[in-house]
Amino acid sequence: MARAVTPTHRLIATTAAWTVALVIFFPVLWMILTSFKTEPSAVASPPQLFSADWTTENYVEVWSRSDYPRFFWNSVVISLGSTLLGLAIAIPAAWSMAFVPGKRTKDLLMWMLSTKMMPAVGVLIPMYLLFQRLGLYDTKLGLVLALMLINLPIIVWMLYTYFKEIPGEILEAARMDGASLWNEVLYVLTPMAVPGIASTLLLNVILAWNEAFWTITLTTTKAAPLSAFIASFSAPQGLFYAKLSAASTMAIAPILILGWFSQKQLVRGLTFGAVK
Amino acid sequence: MSTHSTRLAGRLMVAPSVAVLFLWMIVPLAMTFYFSFRLYRLLSPDRTGWVGFTNYKWFLNAPDFWLAIANTLALVLGVLLITVVLGVLVALLLDQPVKGQGPLRILVIAPFFVMPPVAASIWENLFMHPQNGLLAAAARGLGYDPILYLEQYPMSSVIFITAWEWLPFATLILLTAMQSLSSEQLEAAEMDGAGAFARFQYIVLPHLTRAITVVILIETIFLLGIFGEIFTTTQGGPGSASTTLPYMIYKQALVSKDIGRAAAGGIIAVILANIVAFFLMRGIGKNLDA
Amino acid sequence: MTISLRALLGATALCALSGAALAETTITVATVNNGDMIRMQGLMDDFYAKHPDIKVEWVTLEENVLRQNVTNDIATGGGQYDVMTIGTYEVPIWGKQGWLVSLNDLPASYDVDDLLPAIRGGLTVDGNLMAAPFYGESSMVMYRTDLMEAAGLTMPDAPTWAEIEKAAAAMTDKSKDQYGICLRGKAGWGENMAFLTAMSNSFGARWFDETWHPQFDQPEWKATLDTYLHLMNEYGPPGASNNGFNENLTLFQQGKCGMWIDATVAASFVTGKDSTVADKVGFALAPDNGLGKRGNWLWAWSLAIPTSSQKQDAAKTFIDWATNKDYLALVAAKEGWANVPPGTRTSLYENPEYQKVPFAKMTLDSINAADPTAPTVKPVPYVGVQFVAIPEFSGMGTTVGEFFSAALAGQISADDALAKAQTAVTDEMTAAGYIQ
Question: What are the φ and ψ backbone dihedral angles of C11, each rounded to 5 degrees?
Fold first, then answer.
């Protein structure tokens, strides 16, 4: 909103906004600070900030105690793989819903979303048995499929809301020029929807990265991602705040960094058709 | 190109999504439905058989069943209320002409990137812990006894933690919507002498209706199944004070190893989710011209 | 979809095959993330030097998650793990189901007769050793010698509950954030109920009478719960209903507890490098009430092989390495005697070097004082000191633990908690067919 503002207004708003943002961010910041303290310093009372014993020992210990690169790589493969596969299936579906809507399109969309409402714990054992019988247990492929299916409704919906905002005349024109259906999707529609696809991709990579129920339940070693890495550091014996903070920081750092660098794309697309 | 073949192609393009989602939904659901009528205890494999509605009866008569339903709804509604109200306020603030928009947005967005078990353990250990938490230290510094968040207010604490995780999501969507509001409209209103509050009430808020609907819809889908936050912090307690329906099912499935009962609970949860979905669609579906 | 899936699966299988040819035998070992197990992972060079043909993949998980995953695996015949870390509660139940491989054929150098009889008995089903103990534990009183001295008290080697209360009262100074006693309050059959069931034995209480009828309506349980609540409400830390083993260990290491009654393995942590009170800790047997039974438990984290494992020989080789006498010597040489996994072998306690460790004698005495076959004063139809070795116990124990945890949080009275426990357990036992 480009309205004239007084300097006072700007000052007050800036101060308030920064205060609020820092309050929201503070827990993450405190965790990162704690990860660089010695264990006794991490639980010292009153809490230590400037007087703390700073150390990087926690990271050294966490690193040496587990195979972080493998967990990290599994997280990358699973979150990216499930999202890309989801996009591949969802783009045609979203296209057709947006440009060839039937009477039931809205119902179909809502039904897709409703498949997400089943609580995971309710189908845990059936899913566990299925994965074992199909040989998908503890495989990256299994988790890629599972997380793809979990996030597919969101992907379809986000893309659909995007595609709908693309004016139909452009497609008409392409059709007049004799473009086939696939060419139309591939060369006309997709480039126009790149911001939407990018933000869909980002959001779903984040959701997949942070999924911590199926990823722990359906893996042992080969496919275990960072959520399992965290589960091996929670509730150990003795003073653990600093080490747990270090492990937590390592688990969320990659996605935090990705999110920070790409937040513009993420925000641009995070509208779900909410913007007219 | 005829409309007919376009339609056919359209169907074909939707088909894969619908097919895989249908399988993904129906196979586990059918198995769960089957197990819900069976005696199936993981650790007593020699005792099996059909038991009719016994598992359902057990679940519905369990002393903490209605509490779990109430807690599940409280969690969903509580988090929705906090994230929508605070989300609107934070979005309003970030929409002001402030210095450092970019860094600000990054700080606000950060909790969304934190894995739920990590978020829960940060709050439990570093903040709410009655001896070592920062909040306890703050209370003591001010001369008060530390509040026992997870013991005295377990459900509120879980709601608070979950709301912290979801606030960025709500804020971002609302902020994006707010920024698409034309400033001419607001300026015109200002010329007409509308105060800041009136402008918010009559122009900004109506403009946000769709965005709020989206926030409610997406968050409800995720919140109905919330489990990790409770598992990490209160384990459903003390007693069953913070037990939700998913957590109750978890206890049957993984602590008692009673798959039959857990399956019955799963079916009940699916029914509950469908009821919620029904009201959700009726209540706010019209805001989405999907 | 199906075809491509199968193709992908085929490809995965091919990769797995070619991988196996290079790496010889890879076994997957599931462990709990406690100090002794983590230490073992750091000593694997020794294993690889001796057995270059075996590669070990670790699955290290927090106790609750570990238990869920291995139970799901074994009960559905998943075969994902070759070695599982399980406890004294699981071994008899799983052994009876035929889910575990007998370890009777371990090499003679394993010296099975060297295992402590109480521990070995708990892991043996029908004459077959079903799991090899990695470390054994009982529970005992750990107390602050400096605070006792300041209060002008001395802790007897075998205190009564009355003496514990007196000491707790004398050491409590809430203004200094210092609490006389820290006990488990977090709900769970392996958390607060492990402590409370063991404690109830010393009050003469029992879970069931000889006909499997629950006994929570009896005065012995009332006395147990009342004493526990009184101790915790008067002298315990606030918010204790969320405190389990780890939380209390942290509090004790920070110097916030005068006494802590918990696992004997904690002794090496409270006297270890992370502890601020390492040189001020004394040990005593778990308290009694003059009824002939003490309130201490018996537990062993043990390594077992599921029958679904395809690599049982390699798994046995690993278990032998991880639990024999040489391993104890290896840890002693690298990390000192105090860090040796305790409570499994007679020879360890006969070793003069180990006898110098301050908590060695008290640990052995505590283990010997527990009798899983006759845990309490009156006769019982079950085996287990702080648990009842039936499949239904994990669920029931956790439910009862929730009631007692709610009582500790002040949500319900002790009488309500006991009445709810009695009803819930009666229902479960009837449904499970124990009560006709």
Answer: -60, -45
Same domain membership, residue C226 and residue C129: no
DSSP class of residue C152? Answer: T
Question: Are residues B108 and B98 in contact, defined by beta-carbon separation less than 8 angstroms?
Answer: no
Q: What is the pLDDT along chain B (290 residues), one digit of tens a residue?
A: 446 777 787 788 888 888 898 998 889 899 999 999 999 888 888 888 898 899 999 989 988 899 999 999 999 999 999 999 999 999 999 988 888 888 898 899 899 989 998 999 899 989 998 888 899 888 888 888 888 999 999 999 999 999 999 999 999 889 888 888 877 777 888 888 878 888 888 888 888 888 898 899 889 988 988 888 998 888 887 888 999 999 999 888 888 888 999 999 999 998 888 888 888 877 776 666 54
Q: What is the DSSP code (8-state) at residue C240?
A: G
The tokens of C206 are what?
Answer: 């029992």
| Six-digit token string for A242 | 């600093």
Residue C266 CA to residue C246 CA, distance in Å, equals: 10
State how many domains chain C has: 2
Considering only CB atoms, B237 lies closest to which of C177, C187, C432, namely: C187
Assign domain B54-287 to its CATH superfamily. Answer: MetI-like (1.10.3720.10)
Distant-in-sequence contacts of B63-69, Cβ < 8 A, 24+ apart: B63/B240, B63/C420, B63/C424, B64/B240, B64/B243, B64/B248, B65/B248, B67/B240, B67/B241, B67/B243, B68/B240, B68/B243, B68/B244, B68/B245, B68/B247, B68/B248, B69/B245, B69/B272
**In C, which residues are within 8 Å of B130 by CB distance?**
237-239
Neighbours of C306 (CB within 10 A): 24
Contact by Cβ (8 Å): C314, C54: yes
Q: Are residues C241 and C386 in the same domain?
A: yes
C-beta atoms of B235 and C250 within 8 A: no
Radius of gyration in angstroms for the set of CA atoms belonging to chain B, rounded to a whole number? 24
Closest CA to C166 of C153, C182, C185: C153
SS3 for C153-216 is: CCCCCCCEHHHHHHHHHHHCEHHHCEEEEECCCCCCCCCHHHHHHHHHHHCCCCCECCCCCECC
- Are both C116 and C143 inside the same structural domain? no
* HSE toward the beta carbon, residue C301, CA cutoff 13 A: 22
| Residues C178, C236 within the same domain | yes
Domains and CATH numbers, chain A: 7-59 (no CATH), 67-232 (1.10.3720.10)
Distance from B9 to chain C by nearest Cα, in Å? 19
Neighbours of chain C (3+ CB pairs under 8 A): A, B
Residues C309, C262 share a domain? no
Look up residue C431 and give its two tokens: 């449904």
Q: How far is C12 from chain B (nearest CA, A)?
A: 22
3-state secondary structure of C131: coil
Q: Do C370 and C351 form a contact (C-beta atoms < 8 A)?
A: no
Residues C132 and C146 in one domain: no
- Give the predicted TM-score (pTM) of the model: 0.89
Nearest to A110 by CA among C278, B268, B281, C79: B281
Tell me: do C281 and C157 sit in the same domain: yes
CATH number reported for the structural domain that contains residue C61 in this entry: 3.40.190.10
Same domain? For C84 and C144 the reply is no
C12 contacts A240? CB cut-off 8 A: no
